[in-house]
Amino acid sequence: MRILCVQGIQSSVGASTIVANVSRILSELDHDVLVFDLNPNNLQRLHFNMEWQCNSGWALNICQQQSWYKAAFQCEQGIRFLPFGKITYKELQLLLSDSISDNWLLDQLSLLNLPSKTWVILNTSSELNTLSTQALKLSDIIIRICEPSTNCLSQLVDSIQSSFINNDISLVKKSFYIINKLIPTSEIDRDIALTLKNLLLEQMIPVKIHFDENIKESLAEKTTVTSYAPFSPAAKEFRKLVIWLISHFNR
Amino acid sequence: MLTKDYFNKDTQLSIDTKLRYLIIQSNLAKDWLVFKKTVLGDKTPLFGTLVGIIFFFFCHEEQRKKSSQTIKKYFPHINFSESTPANVIRFILQIVWLSTVQSNRTSKSLINLDFIYTILTFIKMIIFFPVKKILSPARSILSRIETSERIYNNKFEIRIYLLFTIILAAICISIPFTLSAQITFSLLLLFVAVTAYSVPGRLPRLLLLTLSLTISSRYLWWRYSFTLNIDNTMDVVFGIILMFAETYAWLILVLGFFQIIWPLDRKPIPLPEDTSLWPSVDIFIPTYNEPLDIVKTTTFAALDIDWPKDKLNVFILDDGNRLAFKVFATEVNAGYITRDNNIHAKAGNINQALKVTTGDYIAIFDCDHVPVRSFLQVTMGSFLADQKLALVQTPHHFYSPDPFERNLSNFKKVPNENHLFYSIVQSGNDLWNAAFFCGSCSVLKRNPLLEIGGIATETVTEDAHTALRLHRKGYSSAYLNIIQAAGLATESLSAHIGQRIRWARGMAQIFRIDNPLFGKGLSVVQRLCYTNAMIHFFGGIPRLIFLLAPLGFLFFHSYLIYAPAVEILFYAAPMLIHANIANSYIQGKYRHSFWAEIYESVLAWYIARPTTMALISPKTGKFNVTVKGGLVKSDFFDLSISKPYLSLITLNVLGIVAAVYRYFLGPSDEQSTIILNFVWTLYNLILLGGAISVAQETKQIRMRQRVEINTEIIVIKQSGHLVSATMCDFSSSGLGLKIDHKIANINRNEIIHVLIPRGDREFIFPARITNTNNDYIGVVFDNLTIQQQIDLSECTYSRADAWIFWDQNFSHDKPISSIKAIIKVGFHGYVILFKMLPPYVTKPFLLLSSASYFIKTLLPKNITDNTIEYKDA
Amino acid sequence: MKYEKDDINELYKSIGMNSSSYLEIKEYETIINIKKKWLHINEILSFVKRNPSNYKNKGT
Question: Catalytic annotation on B293?
Answer without folding.
Answer: no
